TrEMBL record:
Keyword Methyltransferase attributed: no
Domain BTB: 596-656
Key word Repeat present: yes
Organism: Nothobranchius kadleci
Name listed for the protein in its UniProt record: BTB (POZ) domain containing 11
PROSITE patterns membership: ANK_REP_REGION, ANK_REPEAT, BTB
An annotated Gene Ontology molecular function: protein heterodimerization activity
Keyword terms: ANK repeat, Repeat
ANK repeat boundaries on the chain: 306-334, 356-382
C-alpha cells in the first residue's frame, strides 16, 4: 500500500487488517486445495503438488479471480470463463435445508434453475428485463445477507431494513449490461443500421450477482437504504477493466427510498425538507423564502441527515454565487468555524469514557499540515494525547501513536519541531528533559496540560520522555533519520533497535557524516540492551560498513565498538591435550643406529627410528611405514621438514610428552607445521599454546595467516579473539589493514582455494559467539 501510494497516510490498522485478510485468504485456498487433492494410499494424507494447486484454483470461481494480477476484480467465473455461484450461495443446498427446517419459501427445481440463471446473467436486452432480474435477485439475496452478513459487507442498518434500487441506478447498470442483439429478438423491434456503442467482450463482463454485491457494499458503506447510479459506477470501476469514475461528491441525499421505513407524517416532512434543499441548490433567489419554509424550524440553517447545512453543500461544490445568495438570505457563516464556536479541540475524544478515536491534531500531524497544526496548538490541543483514552487518562506514550509519533513516522520534520517548540513554551518551571535524564529520578513538579480535554491528565517530564522515545522509534522505523537525530539531540537515549535502524538508513543513503556520529554514540547504549538483534542484524551491518567504506575514521570507530562488544574478559585459553602414550622407548634409542629397523632421510641426513614406536604414533607414520618399498635398507625420505624440527618430533615420541622439549621461538612455527603433517594432535596443541603466549601486535598477522594455511581452527579462533580485543591498536598497522581490505596475492599460500576465507566474516562469527556467551547465555561469561 505504501509503494502504490494509495493515500498520503497508511494507518497501522490498515496493514493489520490487510495481513489478517491475506492470512484468511491463504487458509481458505489451502482448505479448498486439500478438498480437491488426491489422497495418498500409504498414509492417507492429501498430496499437494504445483499441478494440483493450479488446477484447484483454476476451477474455483471465487478464488481464481482474486489471485489474478489484474487491476480489476474478477468474480463469479473460473479460468475457463465458466460462470458459477459461490459455495455460500448454493440454492439447491439452501432449498434442502429450508425444506427440512420448515423455514423460508420453497422453490421447485425449475424455479431454482431460473433463479440461478438470473444471478449469473451477464447481459440484458432491456431495462424492463434488468429490473425484473434485479428484483428477483434482491428478493433472494437480501434474506441471506441479513441472515449471514459474512457473505458481503457488514450490515450497518437494522435487520428489518431492505436496500432498494433507484431507477437511475437501474439505467446505469443497464448501460454496462445492455446487449443490442438480445433486444433484436423482439420481432417488433427493427435493428438499427448505425450504432455508436461498442460492445464489451463476454469474458470481462461479471454476472449480475457480483454487480449487486459490490453496489450494495458501496451503499451500505455510506449508510444508505438505496442504491444510486454512483454506487453502480463505483462497482464498474472495480469489476470492469479500463473503467474509471470520479470520487463520490458530497451532496444532499435523496430521501425517496429512505422514507419507506417512516410513517406518513414523517415521510411528508422528509420530502418537504428534501424539496427545500433542491430549491436552494437550483440557484434561484426568488425561491429562497419558499425553500426556507420547507426546511423546517431551523430554516436556512437546517442540517441534513449528513449533518450539513445548505451553505456547507454550496462551499463543498465551490458555487460562489449560491454561497453569496445564502449569506444574503441570513445563513450562519460561523457554522463551519468549529473552534470559534466552542468546539472541542480534541475532536470526538470523550472525557471519562473508553473510546477509540483520533484527535484533529493527530490527523493534522500525520498529514503534515503545518498551518492546521499551528492553529490547533494555539487553541490548546495537546500533542501528548494518544488514540486510546480510558477514564480520562491517555495511554499514548506507551501505546498508540500520539502527535509526536505521527509526525515523526511520516517524516514531517517542520511539524515535529513545531510540536516540540510548543511543549517547550508550556514547560514553565518543570525540569528539562536533560535534567531528568541526568538525575534519573521523577521530577517533583507536575503541570496541567493547557486546555487539555482528556480528564485533566497531568503531564510530567517523564511522560514527555516516553512520548519522544516512541517518536524516536517510529522515525527510525520509517527511515527518517534526521528526525531521529533531532530527538537524540534533546538527550533521549538510544535503544539498540533505533540505533541500528538509523545506522542502516544512513548506510543505504550513503550519509558518511551521520554514520560517524552514530558510531560514536554506540558507547551510550547500555550492555543490558545487547540482545539477539545485535548478533543477527547489528554485526552483519557493521561489518558490511567496514568492508565497503574503507574509511580510516569509520574503521577506527568500528574497532572501538568491536572491542567494546568483545568485553574486558580475557581470551579463552587453549588447553593441553592429555593422551595416553600407547608405546614408549627409552630416550637412549633416539636416533640410535643400534636395533634400528627404519631409517628416515631428512635434508640428506639419516635419522634412525623404530617401527614398534612409530606404527602406533599416528596414522601418518603408519601410512609411511606401510607404503615403504619392500627392498631392504630403503630410507623413507621426508621433505619440507628440517632436520632439527624432525628431531624435536622424534624426541616428543620417544620421551612420551612435551615436558622434555626445549622449543625456541624461531622453531615453534615449523614444529607446528610438522606436528600437523604427522597428525600429532597433542604436540600441535602444545605448539599452539606457545604461540598464544608469545603473540604480539607485530606477529599476530603472520601467525594468523600460517594458522589459516594449516587449518588450525583452535589457534585461528584465539587469534581472531586477539584481533577483536586489540583492534583499536591493530587498525593503525598496515599489515592488519592489508589483511582486512586487500586480497592475498596469487602466489601466496593464503590464496589457495579454501584458505582465503573472508577474514571479516570470520571475525563477525567469532564476535557473535563471544557476545552470545557473555550477554545472552544462561551462564554468562562461563566460557571466559
Amino acid at each position: 500500500m505504501v509503494d502504490s501510494r494509495v493515500a498520503l497516510r497508511i494507518h497501522e490498522h490498515a496493514a493489520i487488517y490487510l495481513t489478517a485478510c491475506m492470512e484468511s485468504l491463504f487458509r481458505e485456498v489451502l482448505s479448498r486445495v486439500l478438498r480437491s487433492a488426491l489422497v495418498e494410499r500409504d498414509n492417507g494424507i492429501p498430496k499437494i503438488t504445483l499441478e494440483s494447486l493450479e488446477q484447484a484454483i483454476s476451477n474455483d470461481s471465487e478464488m481464481w479471480g482474486l489471485l489474478q494480477p489484474y487491476q480489476h476484480l474478477i468474480c463469479g467465473k473460473n479460468s475457463s470463463g465458466v460462470l458459477s455461484l459461490p459455495e455460500s450461495l448454493n440454492l439447491h443446498r439452501d432449498q434442502q435445508r429450508s425444506g427440512r427446517g420448515g423455514e423460508g419459501p420453497g422453490y421447485s427445481q425449475a424455479e431454482l434453475r431460473t433463479l440461478e440463471q438470473s444471478l449469473l446473467a451477464t447481459r440484458v436486452g432491456s431495462i424492463a428485463e434488468l429490473s425484473d432480474l434485479v428484483s428477483r435477485a434482491m428478493h433472494l439475496l437480501q434474506p441471506l445477507h441479513i441472515k449471514n452478513p459474512s457473505n458481503g459487507t457488514p450490515v450497518h442498518q437494522k435487520t428489518n431494513t431492505t436496500v432498494h434500487w433507484e431507477p437511475e441506478a437501474l439505467y446505469t447498470l443497464c448501460y454496462f449490461m445492455h446487449c443490442p442483439q438480445m433486444e433484436w429478438e423482439n420481432p417488433n423491434v427493427e435493428p438499427s443500421k448505425v450504432t455508436l456503442q461498442t460492445e464489451r467482450p463476454f469474458l470481462v463482463l461479471p454476472p449480475l450477482m457480483e454487480w449487486i454485491r459490490v453496489a450494495v457494499a458501496h451503499t451500505e458503506h455510506r449508510r444508505s437504504f438505496s442504491v444510486d447510479s454512483d454506487d453502480v459506477r463505483q462497482a464498474a470501476r472495480l469489476l470492469l477493466p479500463g473503467v474509471d469514475c470520479e470520487p463520490r461528491q458530497i451532496k444532499a441525499e435523496d430521501c425517496f427510498c429512505a422514507t419507506r421505513k417512516l410513517d406518513a407524517a414523517s415521510t411528508e416532512a422528509k420530502f418537504l425538507q428534501d424539496l427545500g434543499f433542491r430549491m436552494l441548490n437550483c440557484g434561484r433567489t426568488d425561491l429562497v423564502k419558499q425553500a426556507v419554509n420547507l426546511l423546517g424550524p431551523d430554516g436556512i440553517n437546517s442540517m441534513s441527515e449528513q449533518g450539513m447545512t445548505p451553505l456547507m453543500y454550496s462551499c463543498v461544490r465551490g458555487d460562489e454565487a449560491m454561497v453569496q445568495m445564502l449569506l444574503d438570505a441570513g445563513a450562519d457563516i460561523n457554522s463551519e468555524l468549529l473552534l470559534d464556536n466552542r468546539a472541542n479541540v480534541e475532536g470526538a475524544l470523550q472525557d471519562g469514557a473508553e473510546n477509540y478515536t483520533e484527535t484533529p491534531l493527530q490527523l493534522a500531524a500525520a498529514a503534515g499540515n503545518f498551518e492546521l497544526v499551528s492553529l490547533l496548538l494555539e487553541r490548546g490541543a495537546d500533542p501528548m494525547i494518544g488514540t486510546l483514552c480510558r477514564n480520562g487518562i491517555s495511554s499514548a506514550p506507551m501505546g498508540d501513536m500520539n502527535s509526536f509519533s505521527l509526525a515523526a513516522s511520516h517524516g514531517h520534520r517542520n511539524v515535529f519541531r513545531k510540536l516540540l517548540s510548543h511543549t517547550e513554551k508550556d514547560k514553565g518551571d518543570v525540569l528539562s528533559l536533560e535534567e531528568i535524564l541526568a538525575e534519573g529520578s521523577d521530577p517533583g513538579e507536575k503541570r496541567l496540560a493547557p486546555q487539555a480535554n482528556c480528564g485533566g491528565t497531568l503531564r510530567t517530564g517523564k511522560a514527555r520522555l516516553r512520548a519522544l522515545r516512541e517518536a524516536m522509534y517510529h522515525s527510525a522505523e520509517h527511515g527518517h533519520v534526521d528526525i531521529t537525530i533531532d530527538i537524540r539531540s534533546l538527550g533521549v537515549p538510544w535503544t539498540l533497535h533505533t540505533w541500528l535502524e538509523s545506522l542502516r538508513t544512513c548506510f543505504i543513503q550513503n550519509r558518511r557524516p551521520l554514520i560517524q556520529g552514530l558510531l560514536k554514540d554506540f558507547s551510550c547504549i547500555k550492555e543490558d540492551e545487547y540482545t539477539e538483534e545485535l548478533i543477527t542484524h547489528g554485526l552483519p551491518l557493521m561489518f558490511q560498513i567496514l568492508r565497503t567504506s574503507k574509511n580510516e575514521v569509520i574503521g577506527q570507530q568500528l574497532s572501538v565498538i568491536f572491542t567494546q562488544c568483545y568485553g574486558p574478559f580475557p581470551i579463552p585459553k587453549l588447553t593441553e591435550i592429555k593422551r595416553k602414550q600407547t608405546s614408549r622407548l627409552d630416550p637412549h634409542f633416539l636416533n640410535n643406529k643400534e636395533m634400528s629397523d627404519v631409517t628416515f632421510l631428512v635434508e640428506g641426513k639419516p635419522f634412525y627410528a623404530h617401527k614398534v614406536l612409530l606404527f602406533t604414533a599416528s596414522p601418518r607414520f603408519k601410512s609411511l611405514l606401510q607404503n615403504r618399498p619392500a627392498a631392504e635398507n630403503t630410507c623413507i625420505e621426508i621433505s619440507h621438514v628440517k632436520y632439527n624440527i624432525f628431531h624435536l618430533v622424534m624426541q616428543y615420541l620417544y620421551c612420551g610428552g612435551t615436558e622434555s622439549l626445549h622449543i625456541r621461538n624461531t622453531e615453534v612455527m615449523e614444529l607446528l607445521s610438522a606436528a600437523k603433517f604427522f597428525q600429532l594432535e597433542a604436540l600441535q596443541r602444545h605448539c599452539e599454546i606457545i604461540c598464544t603466549k608469545n603473540i604480539t601486535t607485530e606477529t599476530c598477522v603472520d601467525l594468523y595467516k600460517h594458522a589459516k594455511f594449516l587449518g588450525a581452527s583452535e589457534l585461528t579462533a584465539f587469534i581472531e579473539g586477539y584481533f577483536l580485543k586489540n583492534m583499536v591498536l591493530l587498525i593503525e598497522l598496515d599489515n592488519f589493514k592489508q589483511l582486512l581490505y586487500e586480497p592475498p596475492p596469487a602466489e601466496s599460500p593464503a590464496s589457495s582455494p579454501g584458505i582465503c576465507s573472508d577474514i571479516l566474516h570470520d571475525l563477525e562469527k567469532t564476535l557473535a559467539t563471544r557476545i552470545h556467551s557473555i550477554h545472552l547465555s544462561t551462564s554468562k561469561g562461563s566460557v571466559v
